[in-house]
Amino acid sequence: MNFAGLIFDFDGVLIESEAVGNRHIADYLTGIGHPTTPEDSYANFMGLSGQQFIGALERWIDRPLPEDYYPMRAAEDARAMREGVGAVAGAVRFIERLPADLPKAIASSSSTAWIRRHLEHIGLADAFGDHVYSGKEHVANGKPAPDLYWHAAAAIGVDIAPCAILEDSPVGATGAVASGAHVIGFVGGAHCGPDHAARLRAIGVHDIAEDFDAVARLLG
Hints:
By secondary structure, the protein is an alpha/beta fold. 46% of the residues lie in helices and 11% in strands.
């Protein structure tokens, strides 16, 4: 292994929630009179959370979100928590084959409850131990700030520079590059279109991985 530690984004890297969630958002926005494709949703909303996400939606439709958005979103989140979201192809096998003593963490914009529920769903409940970190819960400034990555690296006991970070979203990649780590732009999720690698390269990621076999080769 060429790196002292690994830090993973979660949605769109380990589980296919970006594809599921952005299709749902596109359908909702189209249904309220603002035609939106999943590709539009990926380009404009992927990787955002909280008020940043709401702000991006409202800029897209150029008005406040209707009141029915919030119960709709809560119901969809509850459904996903209940039923689970599947793993990205190759993710589970990749994690299971990592050296047991390799420092690793998840650094995600999602809540720790969301992350742990889906780790359990894909059979990786114990894979990261206590090292599951949320931009909503563990730092004042979430992605695209680099703070969450610094927090995760400190928690696993390594400097950020010799860490590798796997990120799929432009928002996450922006913070990862700013952190000073070696950033692998992951484009193996179902939501990643033909131009996704170019968008991540423009942000400054060091490598592109089209699947987890490519990640393994890059990590040495």
